[in-house]
Amino acid sequence: MPFEEKRKQTRVMPVLRAYTAASLCYPRALALVIIGVIGTQFVSITIPLYLKQLIDVLSKSTPSDHVVQVSLVILATYAGLAIFNWIARRILLVSVNHIEVHAMADLANNAFSNLIGHSHDFFLSNFAGTLTRRVTRYSRSYEQVFDSVAFNFLPTLLFSIGSITVLYSRSHWLGLALLVWVVVFIALQIVMTNWHHPLRVARVAQDSKMTGALSDVIGNHSAVSLFAAASYEKKTFAEIVDMWRLATARAWSANNMIQAIQQGLGIIIEVGLLGIGIMLWRQGVVTVGDFVLIQIYIIGLVDQVWNIGNTIRRLYDSFADASEMIDIMELPYGIKDSLAARPLVYKEGAIRFDDVAFYFSEDRPILRQFNLDISGGEKIAFVGPSGAGKSTVTKLLLRLYDTCGGSVMIDGQDIREVSQKSLHETIAFVPQEPILFHRTLRDNILYGRRDASEEEIVEAARRAHCHEFISALQDGYNTYVGERGVKLSGGERQRIAIARAILKNAPILVLDEATSSLDSESEALIQDALAKLMEGKTVIVIAHRLSTIMKMDRIVVMENGNAILSGTHAELIAQEGNLYKKLWEIQAGGFIASNS
Predict the structure, then answer these.
(1) 352-384 pLDDT per residue, tens
(2) Is residue 334 situated within a structural domain?
(3) Domain count along the chain
(4) Which of 194, 320, 488, 587 is most buried as measured by Cβ atoms within 10 A of its Cβ?
(5) How would you class 469 by CB atoms within 10 Å of its CB: exposed for 0-12, middle for 13-18, buried for 19 or more?
(6) In sequence order, what are the residues at sequence separation of 6 or more whose Cβ sits closer than 8 angstroms to the Cβ of residue 456?
(7) What is d(CA 319, CA 312) in angstroms, rounded to the nearest whole number?
């Protein structure tokens, strides 16, 4: 076995064993699986003996009532064994299903629980589709591994031992010949599988590359058309397809060679054992019925051993699938509660940024010794050019990232020392680009407070001025919004997000360009709603349109990761030559402003 596959097996097998033994019901079901496998293989070994006996009786006797009676007894025994095999097979299948569905459900729940606890940055750094595939493959890998043991490895072992033992009892030469063949066949299967596996991996890699290239071009079809790049993309895709063709041809050729060797070994054992049988029949050692016995065992054994190689290859894939999820589960959380984390105790909502520094790369700091005190109930706005650090401040407050220096405190409590759950329950956040679940409008609004009544949901929707368009929909609040809310316009999505925040009614409110997707009419509709929502709360607003924050208690102007100015709108406008006044001079509008 290649080192990498051995490493994956070493990591995966203890996990799968642990989930098999996780419930008290599994050991009982596991015992039934073993009973079922033993029962079915017992019948597979025994039934050919009665067929042999029946043929011997019929071939050595002239027709008579006695011969018919003996034959019927043998046939009745055969039927009884067939019924026993049916029962054993049902026990096996039901027990395997019971174990697999429970273990797979446990694995899926555990993977999801682990995944959902990772940090904001983790999800930004990974494709959603890739993470989804890892969770599903992780649970399904158990099905493949357990099926391989229950339906291939264990039955093959028992059938091999049984058939070799029976033939050995008929003739040592027959038993020894079959034993040698089985050992050689399995050894070659393992060797050939290890040789073939890198070729399969290369083919899968090229297949993924071709799929990715195809998806990339389809997703950017408009750019291909507008830049007249169809010929270029055809040539590029043809090169990728050619690499896939070569990798696939090599993998398939190797697989054909493996099958040819397997077929050759099957012919050798069949002809060889039948040849030995002829010589033993001449010596009177075996009967005509033994030839049937030999043929049935050869066919059954070749079929089971033949699948060993395919099963091993599928196991490699299962180990790889499960190992990908285990990589994530072994990855430490980027943001996690401290061991002594306690619930946040809300008092007045005072927020303090004390010498906060933050960067993704030390040579490109985003915040530099950022200091700011926000009084409880104060409403402030952050303004400044893109990249100044405005959104970063709110992300640090929400603890989507941890500071690289300094601390963020709410009512004197370092947010790193309180539980993330209590922190997020204290803050309502409306992002610039709200993402909705592919659920109903009711479910999306209800996410703000999941125990809210229907009346409270509708009232929040009315205050956010989305009840009007929801009521006009055929299914109303039961309308599904599509993946990420794509069935709604940008303004409708944002109003749903605002309704969600209204329903949550948290004491601290953060609005990150919360009206950026609203047209002027929609923006005017929710002015009063937002003004009422802000009452009695500590509010942080990020805005590029300065007219939306004219009535804020304080405006903080940021540049290059620092607060360079602070004051009311009137105070900042009165100062000559500052950044805020320059920005103001090129903007106009109204949101949380007066009617002036």
Answers:
(1) 999 999 888 777 888 888 899 999 989 998 888
(2) no
(3) 2
(4) 488
(5) middle
(6) 449, 503
(7) 10
